[in-house]
Amino acid sequence: MADTSRVLRTIARNVRAARVRAALSQAELSRRSQVGKGTLVALENMQGNPSLATLVRLADALGLAVSALLRGAPREPVRVISAEAVPPLWTGGRGGEARLLLTTPTPAPVEVWRWRLRPDEEYPSQAHQAGVVETVSVTAGRMTLIVGGGEHTVRAGQIAVFHGDTPHGYRGAGTGTCSLIMTVHLPADPASLA
Length: 194
Prior knowledge:
This protein is of the alpha+beta class. The chain has six helices and ten strands, in the order αααααββββββββββα.
């Protein structure tokens, strides 16, 4: 429970700070992100349990990586990350999960996710901001990648690359669990280039 409270405090602090930096009211951020104002107010007051979809919408509306909303105090220069030590940001009804392992601290950040999808388990994603490119590298099993209404089978050992600024989704296919590594390449933050 303490970890959940700490994460919620961090998210609340980061969302509010990013909103203030962008000179947005709660109502305007709610409109831009399509996250209900009540949900946003509760989140900034360290209440509720925001879903991955809510965090993605807020991050996109603020022009940030999802991990920027989860980032705590600066850490040591070298980090060794155990995927099991990172809490999942999405869990499916059949046991699938998604964990945001890291985001590179560069002007054009890259998020690295580890996903596991059970057969027929699906995660739909809204379109991200313009310029976002995703890669999906299947390490075991197979999945169906849905982009703009089209379906593409991606098997173990294959990588798919696509523009994330259109609705897309990921679905486990076959009879076994699909394991994959996803990278989300975000456009450079103009403020970091100045």
